Amino acid sequence: MKIGYLIGVLFFLTGSLMLFLYKLASVMIHYLMNFVNDETIALNGAFDLVGILFMIVGIVIGVYSFLVARKSTQSILN
């Protein structure tokens, strides 16, 4: 079940990277638009949800892999 852990970690890290890059772009746009004029551009909040969804899916896959591995280990010991 090491593949399940790996997939869970990859989903979690992908979601974290997506969230980080979105926040980085948002801050950069906000900072640069202050030089041009007083109005700022608000980015869509749906990008936050996609990153958070990837992180949640990664956690669910990791927990599921852990439970399956624990159950198979307990059945081997019994």
Record the SSE blueprint.
Blueprint: H1 2-36, H2 46-77
Molecular structure report:
The chain is an all-alpha fold. Helices cover 86% and strands 0% of the residues. It has helices at residues 2-36, 46-77. Helix 1 (2-36) packs antiparallel against helix 2. The chain is rod-shaped, with a radius of gyration of 19 Å. The model has no long low-confidence stretch (mean pLDDT 83).
What are the key terms here?
78 residues; mainly alpha; 0% strand
Shape: rod-shaped
Tell me the span between the first and last alpha carbons: 20 Å
Radius of gyration: 19 Å
**Treating each run of at least 4 consecutive H or I residues as one helix, how many helices?**
2
The whole-number mean of residue pLDDT values reads 83
Give the helix level as a range of percent.
Answer: over 70%
Order of helices and strands: HH
Number of strands: 0
Runs in which pLDDT lies below 50 for 5 or more consecutive residues are none
The fraction of residues assigned to DSSP E strands is under 5%
What profile does the largest beta sheet have?
Answer: none
Structural class: mainly alpha
How would you sum up this structure in a few lines?
86% of the residues lie in helices and 0% in strands. The protein has 2 helices and no strands. The chain has helices spanning 2-36, 46-77.
